């Protein structure tokens, strides 16, 4: 029995599927078994049409296609190609498919098309080392070409796929890969990519020097960031410009971003610009964290991995969403449990948020009068619990005065500072940037002298700081020291860090 290899997505990871076929005597029929979805069942009509239009005559036999292992749910139209090859080559006994993996949806005329799942499947299998050679359409190959250590063979029609299988010189079908064309930074034999194109520039933000500096720290060290200010003072502008000045990305992060885009049914983008997700405060808990009644699906938290998750109008988000956010902010992962599935997502995102100082928004305004009572203001701010605020690294209060617009700084200047700080962190041997350091790494990299240690101890007593708060202060101070090109955290670095704590 000939076996053709393909694969399916099981949550966000791929599982290898063997496409088997038998041709037995009996009433002519065409059956696909193995817990298949509607999209796979529909493939029978696409395959019949493709084969008949290419002058293939169906044998008067009972055709049974099995997708093994049978206990696993399978979905996706990319099984069209391997199933069609099994039918088309049923009487070719000498043909071997070796370790080639076949993916592709068939048009009615036999043209092979790309699907949204192919990139995510191939990337998942390639990372596990289970796949080396892929056969797909040219459209798929353009995306797959960015995945290292795999060979891609291009077939654009069903006939060319049959010719490929029969061919002895398969290198004629080999796809020539293109290199990622962005600025490259090499640190300790690893390449990092970054872009110097700034679609939205920080020089458009008037005033708010303190907030810009906080944004620089946020980008340089991957710190969580909260801005408080009246409507129109520039909170959203700063947040939307952050993604263009973030730290460079390695190839693995770029591919992971592209995989999440594919799973979200978006156009795959291989640029080193990190993801930016900004759900509305009326979004449901499932859409933010992922879930569903049967199979757990990704939410905004998972889709923002290695990027930015922006919550505008933070207190207007339901309290159950804000409290549930505490785990992914602290542990950088989230487990979604359902009856039929349990999925662990990585959540190494930068959490950026913005809020008004009061319900009417005018408490910090220099021109408008606030209409809120002290009780209303307090109730508004009490929507954010202390444990939640404890996970915020940087807190900035912004005014609506634009008279301090003396220091106009561009995204290019800020990005250069971020890259310098990034290089310093990587040269120290850090696997994660300062904002995501664990307790062990904090002790190793966030070193204080005796004078600075005394200041931190006084701050702990005066402000009743928790252990988590102290760690946050140290991590921010480490980033400020990197921006200032200091080997150790100085007194000035620590004092600046303390300025960004919510008191």
TrEMBL record:
GO terms for MF? ATP binding
Q: Where is the Magnesium chelatase ChlI-like catalytic domain?
A: 201-400
Ranges for domain Mg chelatase-related protein C-terminal come to 410-501
Q: Which domain of life is it from?
A: Bacteria
What is any Pfam family matched here? Mg_chelatase
> Record's SUPFAM superfamilies?
P-loop containing nucleoside triphosphate hydrolases, Ribosomal protein S5 domain 2-like
**Membrane spanning residue stretches:** none
NCBIfam families to which the protein is assigned, alphabetical: YifB family Mg chelatase-like AAA ATPase (TIGR00368)
The name this protein carries in UniProt is YifB family Mg chelatase-like AAA ATPase
């Amino acid at each position: 029995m000939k076996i053709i290899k393909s694969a399916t997505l099981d949550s966000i990871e791929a599982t290898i599927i063997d496409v088997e076929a038998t041709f037995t005597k009996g009433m002519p029929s065409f059956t696909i078994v193995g817990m298949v979805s509607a999209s796979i069942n529909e493939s029978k009509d696409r395959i019949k049409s493709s084969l008949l239009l290419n002058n293939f005559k169906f044998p008067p036999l009972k055709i049974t296609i099995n997708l093994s292992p049978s206990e696993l749910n399978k979905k996706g139209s990319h099984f069209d190609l391997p199933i069609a090859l099994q039918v088309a080559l049923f009487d070719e006994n000498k043909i071997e498919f070796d370790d080639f993996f076949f993916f592709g949806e068939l048009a009615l005329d036999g043209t092979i098309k790309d699907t949204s799942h192919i990139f995510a499947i191939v990337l998942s299998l390639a990372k596990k080392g289970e796949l080396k050679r892929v056969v797909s359409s040219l459209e798929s190959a353009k995306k797959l070409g960015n995945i290292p250590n795999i060979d891609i063979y291009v077939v654009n029609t069903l006939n060319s796929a049959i010719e490929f299988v029969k061919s002895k010189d398969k290198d004629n079908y080999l796809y020539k890969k293109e290199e990622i064309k962005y600025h490259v930074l090499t640190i300790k034999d690893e390449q990092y990519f970054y872009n110097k194109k700034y679609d939205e520039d920080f020089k458009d933000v008037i005033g708010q020097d303190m907030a810009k500096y906080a944004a620089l720290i946020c980008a340089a060290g991957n710190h969580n960031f909260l801005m408080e200010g009246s409507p129109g003072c520039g909170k959203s502008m700063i947040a939307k410009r952050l993604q263009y000045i973030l730290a460079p990305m390695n190839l693995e992060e770029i591919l992971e971003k592209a995989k999440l885009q594919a799973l979200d049914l978006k156009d795959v983008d291989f640029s080193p610009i990190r993801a930016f997700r900004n759900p509305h405060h009326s979004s449901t808990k499932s859409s933010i964290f992922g879930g569903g009644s049967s199979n757990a699906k990704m939410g905004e938290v998972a889709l923002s991995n290695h990027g930015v998750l922006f919550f505008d109008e933070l207190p207007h988000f339901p309290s159950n969403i804000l409290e549930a956010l505490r785990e992914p902010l602290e542990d950088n992962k989230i487990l979604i449990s359902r009856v039929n599935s349990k999925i662990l997502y990585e959540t190494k995102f930068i959490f950026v948020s913005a809020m008004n100082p009061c319900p009417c928004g005018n408490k910090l305004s220099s021109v408008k009068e606030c209409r809120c009572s002290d009780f209303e203001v307090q109730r508004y701010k009490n929507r954010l619990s202390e444990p939640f605020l404890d996970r915020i690294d940087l807190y900035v209060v912004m005014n609506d005065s634009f008279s301090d617009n003396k220091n106009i700084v561009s995204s290019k200047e800020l990005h250069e500072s971020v890259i310098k700080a990034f290089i310093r962190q990587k040269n120290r041997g850090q696997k994660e940037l300062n904002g995501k350091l664990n307790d062990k790494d904090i002790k190793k990299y966030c070193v204080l002298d005796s004078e600075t240690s005394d200041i931190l101890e006084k701050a702990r007593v005066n402000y009743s700081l928790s252990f988590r708060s102290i760690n946050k202060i140290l991590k921010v101070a480490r980033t400020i020291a990197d921006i200032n090109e200091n080997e150790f955290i100085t007194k000035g670095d620590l004092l600046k860090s303390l300025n960004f704590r919510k008191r």
